[in-house]
Amino acid sequence: MQERKSVLTLPLKVVLTEEGTSFFIRKGKNLRKFRLADNVEEYGIIMDSFSPASVQRMMLVDYISKVEISKTEFMSSRQEIMDLSKLVVYSMLYRQYDIYIFARILASDVIKKWNRLNPSNIIDEKTKINDSYLKTVLAEKEKEIAAIRDEILAPMYSYISRNSSLLPEEKNIQLLLSEKFLTNLRPFTWFIIAKFKGSDGYDLLLKNIRTSLAEYMEKSKIAEYVSLMIMELAMNAENSNLKREAKALFKGAVDMNAVLFDPSVRKQVLDSLERRQEFVYLSWKIGSRNATIGMQGKLQITLYNRESEYANMKETFDEKRNADLKKKSLQDFYKELPNSDASAELGLYYLSYLSEACEKVNVKFESLVSQMQSSDLTVMTLVLNL
After folding, report:
1. Count of C-beta atoms within a 10 Å radius of residue 72
2. Do 380 and 372 contact (CB within 8 A), yes or no?
3. Which of 214, 245, 250, 253 has its CA 20 to 30 A from that of 134?
4. Cα separation of 257 and 272, whole Å?
5. At a CB cut-off of 8 Å and minimum separation 6, what does 1 contact?
């Protein structure tokens, strides 16, 4: 899960939405102006370290439109980058589940009947409810809501507990994840559920919440694939940069294995890259809650790197994306990989695995490689519609 570390140490640029900008200005926070990898200037926040929980809260309330990190090397931050990637995917899934459940509730027979009988006090997406009143009612019904939540989760708990393919730690992670999906439903949803408990159609309402929870739990498996693939692509870009820089620095008189594995040689090359501001950039662009239907769950992940062999990279990328890897399990594929430069292509193979995983859970997935006209940056883009 994404909250294993209470603080992630990464150079994070956070681009805010209009709502996020308004919130921070009201709080008296000075926003920074910065340039992103695509050469666009934005206002937002720059952090050297951050709490995953606080960034997740900002994503859930639609304060963040994009996050970007830039580094010369990724190996030392491997776990943090993977945690950040999973954090973004999980946050979007929590938010999408909340949007989906609220829409299902409004379309339910329970609400339709209420609206017919109470035309002057209908419940729909425009309904505004006083925050303090909402908090009071939810506090009064706290035990009742906890019991409803347990009732929704009971079959999921039972299924996870009986799943012999999961290790004890993996079972705990799955249990926590199922709880988090419900915890991140908007308070108004719980107000409605508690208000109509026992009404005609209430049981069907709970069944819908339970069924869609199982669907979103399946979708959440994508987070691991995405994080591993991004990491491999980043490492591939890093190694490409190290080799190119080493050739220029040592006039070709250096063993490339030393560049990758000898700490002193590697440090010299990384220092040179740092001085020349030769970074690899990773960005996550997050669809807004207020976007048009179908675009709210859009996640665009982009890796920018100076890649001299662009045409070759594009050809390899397309070839691996369409590779038929169904004959091997991912585990077998890992075992058969030689400990050589061939392993750098692992991230490209992940495209096939990720595409298949997305197809299984009805998530639209696209990937492409392009080159920016204004620079020699190669741009790898992965788009998921969660």
Report:
1. 20
2. no
3. 214
4. 18
5. 86, 90, 173, 176, 177
- Among 16-20, 221-225, 326-330, 340-344, the range scoring the smallest mean pLDDT is 326-330
Give tens-digit pLDDT for 155-196: 999 999 999 999 999 999 999 999 999 999 999 999 999 999
Question: Which residues, other chains included, contact 119 with Cβ-Cβ below 8 Å and sequence gap of 6+?
Answer: none
Mapping DSSP to helix (H, G, I), strand (E, B) and coil, where does residue 304 land? Answer: strand
φ, ψ for residue 285 (rounded to 5)? -100, 125
pLDDT reported for residue 348: 59
d(CA 101, CA 208): 8
- Burial label for 56, CB within 10 Å (0-12, 13-18, 19+), is buried
Query: Measured between alpha carbons, how far is 327 from 323 in angstroms, rounded to an integer?
Result: 11
**Token code pair at residue 80:** 């943090």
The residue-averaged pLDDT of 251-257 equals 73
Contacts of 208 (CB under 8 A, 6+ apart): 101, 104, 108
User: DSSP readout, 113-135?
Assistant: HHHHH-GGG--STT----HHHHH
Whole-number Å distance between alpha carbons of 213 and 209:
6
Retrieve residue 68's tokens.
């970007």
Report the chain's terminal Cα–Cα distance, integer Å.
18
φ, ψ dihedrals at 329, nearest 5°: -80, 160
Query: Which H/E stretch holds residue 15?
Result: strand 12-16
Taking the C-alpha atoms of residue 379 and residue 368, their distance in angstroms, rounded to an integer, is 8
Contact between 68 and 283 (Cβ < 8 Å): yes
Amino acid at 9: T
Q: What is the pLDDT of residue 340?
A: 47
pLDDT at 325: 45
pTM > 0.70: yes
Tokens representing residue 323 in the block:
């590779």
More confident residue, 54 or 326: 54
Q: Give ∠ CA 200-202-206 in degrees, rounded to 5.
A: 160
Give kind and range of the element (H or E) at residue 45: strand 41-47
DSSP SS3 for 62: coil
Contact 381, 298 (CB under 8 A): no
Q: Residue 346 and residue 350: Cα distance in Å, rounded?
A: 6
Query: Which tokens sit at 315?
Result: 């050809």
